[in-house]
Please model this.
Amino acid sequence: MTRVFSSESEMQAGIVEHARYLGFHVHHSARVLTPTGWRTPIVGDRGFPDLVLALDGDVFAWELKLPRQRIAPEQTAWGVALGGLDGQARLEYAIVRPKTYDLALDRLDQIASGRRRR
Model:
């Protein structure tokens, strides 16, 4: 049976509640009302997934959409960047401190070697 939700927020609340019940760590960047309308204040590229859920090394980055909502090109780009569209997702977790800052940049260089940013 397909569930019917009145809003994306309602669907998200159900997922978050269930994920927390199961012990997942949950991240969502909440939207705020600004003088120019609703915005999600971030530093980074537009289109980041609505939810990131993690438990014991399994990480899910999910974009939530109701049936008639369209996926923006920026959201598709994040899906490709995360490897989720072809099932080849990889995750590397690190704690970066000033003393390991250069090592972190070197790791980025190593991964990006031979690739060009559009």
